[in-house]
Amino acid sequence: MKVGILQFFGWRDRSISLNTVYERALERISIMDRTGYDAVWLAEHHFSTYSVCPSVHLMGAMAAARTKHLRIGTAVSLAPFYNPLRLAEEVALLDVLSGGRVNWGAGRGFERSEFAAFGIPGEESAPRFHETVDIVLKAWTSQRISYEGKFYRYDDVEVLPKPLQAPHPPVWMAASSMPAIEWAASQGHSILMDPHSSFADLVKKRRHYAAKLEEAGYSDAGRTIPMARLIAVEETAEKAREVARRVAEWTVGSYAGPKHTGNVRQEIRSYGGKDPIDYYLSEAMIHGTPESVADQIQSFAADSGMTYLMAAPLSAGSFRLLTDKVLPLIAG
């Protein structure tokens, strides 16, 4: 199994400077480069302390400068918030500067406050996303691009630079809802699977995606489908559960709780009928000792067919133990 890290930039304590948050994350990324991780996947968010990283491409350049082997993933570039040609330029430039190490993950987003601030009507988010992805891929693979769409029109534009990787970096679409999964499958795109869905939902969605791929005439064989999981690792199960509980409370309060109703997917809002904190602890998080966490990961991989774990460590200690004790047991 390949293992990457889903890197958030949470600002839970404002007495700590944001510069410190960024420096700690970049130091972690340097460690990843030396310890066998496949990639860092940078999470883009706006207007929230849940993760203060509004530009995954700028952060990706910093990550690339501090590493030699680690792949630089976006999880995701929130495509509707960019002019498509500007997005194509930025990701291509990052690919060139990193020596061809970019994994491009694109997503629609679903936080209403972001769409409102950027002046994008909610009903336009999906078609804008689809059109932007189409334009980016055409800009990378055409010497010059002419395009006539609903939102964007271009006439004989040469987009430079082109990506270093040919024909372009590996591409994934963030897909959590069934419509998003079905659209990605209809286009033959690989998908990124989110950290908030339950274990059972991930298995169901993964199977649905494979079936829809086949219906559209594409093969599922050999695809890399990263599955994200929130992970707390400590020396005792009790300590790990407490770390997981604190992060679950933070997540519900800052990102996915009742005050965010209407901003997140229905299956997350309902929490499967459970208390939100209990939902995360029992249905969406992996937590325990290093040996227990390795067992849980391997068990889930057997149930889901997971071949790529996108791990989101919930503390500095969790990252250290994941790196030192869990990674050697699961990576291959």
Describe the structure.
Helix 2 (56-65) links the parallel strand 2 (39-42) and strand 3. This protein has a domain at 1-174: Alpha-Beta Barrel (TIM Barrel). With 332 residues, the chain is of the alpha/beta class. The chain has helices at 18-34, 56-65, 84-97, 112-117, 125-141, 178-187, 199-215, 237-256, 266-270, 276-284, 290-304, 316-330, and strands spanning 2-7, 39-42, 71-74, 77-78, 102-107, 145-148, 153-157, 171-174, 190-192, 227-233, 285-288, 308-313. Strands 1, 2, 3, 4, 5, 8, 9, 10, 11 and 12 form a ten-stranded parallel sheet that branches. Strands 6-7 form a two-stranded antiparallel sheet. Helix 2 runs parallel beside helix 3. It has twelve helices and twelve strands. Residues 260-268 have low confidence and may be disordered.
**Which shape, going by the Cα principal axes?**
globular
What does the main sheet amount to? 10 strands, parallel
Tell me the CATH architecture of the domain at 1-174.
Alpha-Beta Barrel
Fraction of residues in H or I helices? 40-55%
Distance between the termini: 5 Å
Return Rg in Å: 19 Å
Backbone structural class: alpha/beta
CATH topology of the domain at 1-174: TIM Barrel
Please tally the helical runs, counting DSSP H or I stretches of 4 or more residues.
12
The level-1 CATH class of the domain at 1-174: Alpha Beta
Specify the CATH homologous superfamily of the domain at 1-174: Luciferase-like domain
Uncertain runs: 260-268
Tell me, rounded to a whole number, the average pLDDT: 94
